[in-house]
């Protein structure tokens, strides 16, 4: 299904993926061979879904274990980034840092890669992406700014949204590729608009994650199990994707058992959002209030845990003595009845 959404400044094209049998997405596409550089949580999920959609997928990651897992899923491991570029028509990058992006840009900026299209999905400063774009442009390689909305768990089940930006015709030509690993993609126009939209999305995620923890902790103090609260609230006006995705991880130390976004990695995203708000002079009292909670998670040793660990932070910030008194009062009232 394709729709066209018009904004004050530009036209934004939207596409949603229809359910289809394996291989059908590639039947009308000129792009059959896709490369993935960075086979971490997000990169491996995208690669796996592209394989299931019928694409030939090759990839590289400095981790030997990541390459072994990729091969087991049906992918073709490569020895380095340049080998991926030689084997693929379109290359997807999912990288942990600006340094990794710069190294990848220099590796791809050779004449033999002329005409290669690179879908850059990492959450990084847009200025670093522009530098990488200019480095690749000198060799005829087209870099698109295409960050993703969704967690690692969502990526695994193809529940991602792509915020694509760059040359419009190039973005439009990649529809079947986007459909191979996402549920929807948006052509947002000028390069960098993808990251701008991603920062807006992550601002909401930061707030909704903490507000979810607040509500579920209140419910727990009422004596309502977290699982019950998630089920009931998700179907009402107070529901949100963070409640559905992170809510279940806020029970029984779930934040240490399933990692959709590490607290230490999220710090990078928080920094980018804060810088954007400051640069654009936007008042953000609610977002600013969440910073201390995420910093608290780092200080409490949750850096390797999922960001759902903010529940533990709020729990420890709350008055335990008051909670015990409330429970005691409830037991007394129940006994009298």
Give structural notes.
With 337 residues, this protein is α/β, with parallel strands linked by helices. The chain folds into 2 domains: 2-189, Rossmann fold (3-Layer(aba) Sandwich), CATH 3.40.50.720; 197-318, N-(1-d-carboxylethyl)-l-norvaline Dehydrogenase, domain 2. It is 51% helix and 13% strand. The chain is built from 15 helices and 11 strands. It has helices at residues 41-52, 64-72, 81-87, 98-108, 126-137, 152-156, 168-173, 175-181, 193-222, 226-234, 241-246, 263-279, 285-299, 310-317, 320-336, and strands at 2-6, 11-16, 33-37, 56-60, 76-77, 90-93, 117-120, 142-145, 148-149, 161-164, 184-187. A 6-stranded parallel beta sheet has the order 5-4-3-6-7-8, with helices on both faces. Strand 6, helix 4 (98-108) and strand 7 (117-120) form a beta-alpha-beta unit. Helix 9 crosses helix 12, helix 9 (193-222) packs across helix 13 and helix 9 (193-222) packs across helix 14 (310-317). The longest helix has 30 residues, at 193-222. It is globular, with a radius of gyration of 22 Å. It starts with a strand and ends with a helix. The relative contact order is 0.09. Residues 1-10 and 18-23 have low confidence and may be disordered.
